[in-house]
Design a protein that fits this description.
mainly beta, OB fold (Dihydrolipoamide Acetyltransferase, E2P), five-stranded antiparallel sheet, about 0% helix
Amino acid sequence: MSEQKIEKTTTPVKEKTVKHFSGVVVNAKGNKTIAVEVEAVKMNKKYRKRYTVSRNYQVHDEKNVCKEGDKVTFIECRPLSKTKRWRVTDK
């Protein structure tokens, strides 16, 4: 009888890319929660004009060290509440 080679193929596992942003703290009144405003520059396709778009994110601040006006960096994490899906990495 002839021997048959059986090759096992494994599918490569995709690692999740973690989103990270940096912005300015606009509200730090909540307990362990800060609101961070992130600004991005976009360009109109037709007229090639640049414009600024800003968005607020609710970010988890475990140690309550961030104050209003601080520049912070934050990354994506598991959902911590209804609106919080981000946590502070650097102040």
